[in-house]
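**Paired protein data**
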Amino acid sequence: MMAVTRKRTKHLVAAAAVLAGGLALGLASAALALRISGSWAAVRNGPWRAFLEAGSPEADLYTRAAIAVGGLLALDKSETIYFVASEDDDGHALRARCDYRVEGRDPAARWWSLTLYGADRFLIANPQQRFSYSGTTLRREADGGYVVHVSATAKPGSWLPSGNETQLFLTLRLYNPAAALYAAPARAALPRIVAERCP
């Protein structure tokens, strides 16, 4: 009787180990699939990436999961195109210890905004309560273009405080984009992200 009980215990332990290993492998493969889908499913335009199926009923399972993980409450691409950047024009990750210039001209859209997020994909708390600029709230350069400074220290003009985040994300939302931009988002004139100082 004791031998039978030991045998059953061994089988239960082995089954539990197989189950735990399978669960760990499944979670790891799902996380990897989300990371991979986040790179190949996106339209690339310089440092910017856009998931055109975000908010669409045609979005596949992995795109929906990636959007849910990122916390994006997405509208369909016929209404809005979302571009996200996690690196500068040179391909380096955006970090709070660096100072950046985000410079450009108004994109071909009815309304647009530029928002800074931290590593947790939430707005970065700051005393100024400054999280975003739109085409109607930022300071214009003499030529009609704009420069938005992203830095942990205050900058003159349009400035987004980056706090002490380890990773930064910029989101450019284009509401009611022009037909040409909608048709070819990879060739749209989007803002440059230039590292001015990065110790």
